[in-house]
Amino acid sequence: MIDVEVVQLLVSPSHRLDGRPSDGPAPGPDDERVPRAEVRARLGLVGDRYYAQPAHRDASVTIMSAENLPTDIDPAVDLRQTRRNVLLRGVGIDAYVGATISLDCGPGPVRFSVNRPARPCAWMNVTVGPGAQRALRDKGGVRCTPLDDGVLTVGPARFAVLSEPAPSAPRR
């Protein structure tokens, strides 16, 4: 187990980045960050736009490493701009695609299947700043399926890898 910090949690009831980036984000609350998020197995974060959406069952929760935020582009960048759900400090989460992990914020561990990378889109150049999409390439976080009901909270947490990712094929 590794000591980590849940820096921020974002539960957004609406899709703010639909359509063309040149049109700008859709209106919504100024701040959708929360101190606590309820997790439901195979459904996601209660109240989030991807909760219980069949098309997003394997990607209902996104986790990102705070160390990968492009603070050189915008020193104040956070989950409000990247639209990820969980911001962790202390672990390179992008390395765990294919693994099963657990995150324990105190009330008990919540397991996640880390299914695939959360690839940055052109919206990052609008919400964070020019060059953000490129800066987040291969480090934009991961898309996960929660395997347990539980609670995530901002603050100290314990991170564990329960099953390692399969070895990747060599790149040509």
Main traits of this protein?
172 residues, mainly beta, 3-stranded antiparallel β-sheet, 3 helices, 11 strands
What does this structure look like?
It is a single chain. The chain has 172 residues and is mostly beta strands. Helix content is 8%, strand content 34%. It has helices spanning 79-82, 123-127, 132-135, and strands at 2-10, 33-34, 36-40, 44-45, 61-65, 86-89, 100-104, 109-117, 142-146, 150-153, 155-163. The protein has a seven-stranded mixed β-barrel. A three-stranded antiparallel β-sheet has the order 4-3-10, with no helix packed on it. The longest helix is centred in the last third of the chain and has 5 residues, at 123-127. The chain is globular. The termini are far apart. The model has no long low-confidence stretch (mean pLDDT 85).
Total helical segments: 3
Calculate Rg over CA atoms: 15 Å
Number of strands: 11
Q: Flag low-confidence runs.
A: none
| Order of strands, widest sheet | 1-6-5-9-8-7-11
- Helix coverage percent of residues? under 10%
SSE class: mainly beta
**What is the overall pLDDT average?**
85
Approximately what portion of the residues adopt beta-strand conformation?
A: 25-35%
Main sheet attributes: strand count, strand direction, barrel closure: 7 strands, mixed, barrel
Written as H for each helix and E for each strand, in order along the chain, the element string is EEEEEHEEEHHEEE
- Determine the N-to-C terminus distance: 34 Å
Which overall shape is indicated by the principal axes computed on the Cα atoms?
A: globular
